[in-house]
Write a structure and sequence with these properties.
Length: 51
């Protein structure tokens, strides 16, 4: 793809670094995940409604 074509596209072009694959399936912040799960248990998910 030429630079002119890239500049005219409406969708962003993102190159994913393959080094990030080592984090797949790992919990990086377990204390934050625990806190988020506790909050979801207390409050729950918002009901789908009019946007």
């Amino acid at each position: 793809m030429k630079l002119e074509q890239i500049n005219k596209t409406k969708t962003p072009i993102v190159k994913i670094d393959k080094k990030l694959d080592r984090f797949q399936g790992k919990v990086l912040f377990p204390e934050k995940l625990k806190q988020a799960n506790e909050t979801l248990e207390r409050v729950g998910l918002p009901k789908p409604g009019k946007a």
